[in-house]
Amino acid sequence: MVEQVERKPQKEGAMVEPLDIVAYYREGKFLSFKETKQPCFPPFNTEFFYPSPNCTIVAFVSSPDCTQNPLPGQGDLVPSPLFDFLCTEEYKSVSINRAALTLFTSLHDHLSGLKTQLTVIEGQLIITGHSLGGAVASLFTLCLLDENLLKPKCRPFCITFGSPLVGGFGLQHSIWNSFFLHVVSNQDPVPGLFLPSGRGRSTPTSSHSQTTGYKPFGTYLLCSELGCACFDNPDLILELLKVISSEVAGGLQDVDYGEILRNLKERAICKGLPQVGERFANPFSAGIIMELETIGFNQTKLLQHNIDIETVISAMEAEARNLTQKNKASDAKKLNEIKIDMTRLELYKKNSNMGYYDCFKNQGSKRDIHVEQFRVNLTGYWEGMVAQIQRKPHKEGATFRTRWLYAGTVYRRMVEPLDIAAFYREGRKDYMNKRSAHYKLLQEWYEEDVKPPSRDKLDSKKQKVSSILTEDSCFWAHVEEAILSCELLKSENCNLEEGKSSWDNLVKFEEYVMEQIDNYAVSPEIFLEKSSFMKWRGLYEGYIDTRSNSHSSPLISFMKNRSYRQYG
């Protein structure tokens, strides 16, 4: 099942570049299939190569029959619990190509042994494979990355050659995209084999819905006899693969990737680009056209397949801009900038005489207006962070959430009240049903992690309550809704049903506030004379005084006895 091939090592310490693998292709090692005694469908074997003392190459080789004669249903995308580690908040399940998954699961015992072998290696580890062997190489690499069994400096890098697409959206949004390079010849229809437009080669039982979910992941190196071009945009890659599959004459055929890569390694391509036209006179656009023409995609061919060159250029320009923005500053630098905005916000809170919530809501001075920029900066940063966490697999996402949980909680408690203030300043209602999803997730993750306070912890909170942030970042939304309920009850237009509902809400609000006070979970600033909470208190007590029957509660007693003066 496993053939270990000893190679003459290169100079000690030398690193193996992706194109150096061409040497093994030229000798036919990766493309030759040797039948094994152990039965397996489709026939398959694994080979080891050691190009240097610091590099190990593992090659997956499958029978050519498995792609040249696909069975019914092989092109279907099917969910697999084996790859649930790739699930995210956004993508609850991950679907894998049936043919690749069938082969991968049939090799379970063999691959488990292979993992054990790889735990002892040092240096570079390259996982590679051709055709369906490349698809298995991709799946195996994902498992290695997830299980983290290898030595710290031995993270695998996967290079596939002519591999069919492996999966759908869940793979495309994997955090490990940068560990995959897929080499595709413009004469090889296999990478687009299971796409509906791939020369009608989608398998007979594959429904349109089952096959249209394919999405490329990783970087694609598209090659021709003249040159190559790299692409990361999955939508563009998908369109180019469809064109290749539909244009290659004679259906499936052997492609000599060794020859293609040898040419790329031994010469640099310098090609003129005549008549790019004024629309594409800028260097970036001209460069894109040159790359596409080098790999056999001229404007005429793209238009024949309803691909607009301007759309392609726009997509690639956007991709380049995004990459530039990502590289502008590291996460640490961004976090430092955010900390500065948080510090300014804390200073604003400290100097707000009626409480920072009401100061911001009333917009009584220029400094209140300046705070708006801090709020926008902080919200933009944390929306991005939450989206990034959602895209991570559950295991890594949980670790990431724990690392950032404290900072995210402080942000939520400091900034969400300002969002609430802006919301009700505009005369709107029912904030809770319009609350931003990133606040909900930050709160959900916090509540999953936090434990109920013990008696000792409550005593400690009591001593520090004067300096805390109100723990429930939606506290002021509940206050505003309680004010609206009081105003509705006093209104002549309030009918019986609205009156009962408003009163029930107020009773619940009383219980909620008293619970927050008992747990020392609210900041003393809510009791400042001009705060919205004290406004609610005046409206509420005024309404109760007009009722024929008296109403009492722990909160009313707490407020009438002025016990809040001893709070904090």
List the helices and strands and how they pair.
Layout: E1 2-4, H1 22-26, E2 44-52, E3 55-62, H2 65-68, E4 77-79, E5 95-97, H3 98-106, H4 108-118, E6 124-130, H5 132-147, E7 156-161, H6 169-172, E8 180-185, H7 208-211, E9 219-223, E10 228-231, H8 234-247, H9 257-266, H10 283-294, H11 299-304, H12 309-328, H13 331-350, H14 356-362, H15 366-391, H16 394-425, H17 437-449, H18 455-464, H19 475-490, H20 496-518, H21 532-546, H22 554-560
Parallel strand pairs: 1-2, 3-6, 6-7, 7-8, 8-9
Antiparallel strand pairs: 2-3, 4-5, 9-10
Q: What characteristics describe this protein?
A:
eight-stranded mixed sheet; alpha/beta; elongated; 22 helices; 10 strands; disordered N terminus
